[in-house]
Amino acid sequence: MQIETNTNLLDQFGWTFRVSPSLDDPSRVLLLLHGWTGDENSMWTFTQNIFSSYSIIAPRAPYSAPPDKGGYSWRELKPGTWGSPTLEELSLAADALVSLVDDWSASLSITSPTFDMVGFSQGGALAATLVALHPARVGKVAVLSGFVPSGVERLLHPGLLEDIRFFWAHGTKDELISIERGRASIEFLENAGAEVQFCQAEIGHRVSKECWRSLATFLKN
C-alpha cells in the first residue's frame, strides 16, 4: 500500500499510529479509523488535499484479527462474538481513543475541545459509538460503509447530536453491510438531531470516486 511520504509512524501513549502533522499551524485533529483487518496505513487514501487543514492521526486498532485474515480489530474477538460489534465491545476502544487524541493534541499545543473523524466499515461503527458516548468532543464525523452498532441506538436520545455534522457514504450493492442497515443507521442519527449528508453509489463495500470527492468537500467546509 502506498503511504504518503510526509507521514510518520510512532509508538507513543500506548498506541502504534501514523501521523501527518499539518503543514500550517494545526488547529484541529482528524482521527482516521480503519476497518476490520486494516491497520494504521489503511486510511490515508481518504486524506488527499486536506493535509493543511488538520493534524491527522491514524491509530492501529489494539486487537489482532485472526491469523488467516491479518491486520487488526477494534474489538477483542472471543467465542460467540463473531457477529457485528456492539456498543459494549467497542466502548473501551472509543474511550481510549479520546485519551489518545487528547495526548496527541497536547503534544502539538492544539487546544480545540473537539476533533473530527473518518471511519470505514468497523471503523465507521466505532466512530458512531465514540460520538454517541462523547458528543461534546466531536465536530464532524464521516462514516464510510459503516453502521450504528447494536446498543448505540439506546444512547441516541433527541438533541444529543444536534451540533454535529455527519457524512455517510454507502454502496447500494454492499455485500458486507447492507444499504438498508446504512439507511436505518442514518435514521438513528437524524432522530438524535444530527445533520447527515448522504452519498450513495451503485458499488459494493468501498467508497465511490464521487463520494470520495464529496467527503473532501465536507471536511474542508
Automatic annotation (TrEMBL):
Keyword Hydrolase: yes
Matches recorded under SUPFAM superfamilies: alpha/beta-Hydrolases
Residue intervals of the Phospholipase/carboxylesterase/thioesterase domain: 19-220
GO MF, one annotated term: hydrolase activity
Keywords, ordered alphabetically: Hydrolase
Taxonomic superkingdom: Bacteria
Coiled-coil stretches noted in the UniProt entry, renumbered to this chain: none
Pfam family, one: Abhydrolase_2
Classification via InterPro entries: AB_hydrolase_fold, LYPA1-2/EST-like, PLipase/COase/thioEstase
Entry similarity comment: Belongs to the AB hydrolase superfamily. AB hydrolase 2 family.
Protein name: Phospholipase/carboxylesterase/thioesterase domain-containing protein
Taxonomic source organism: Candidatus Desulfolinea nitratireducens
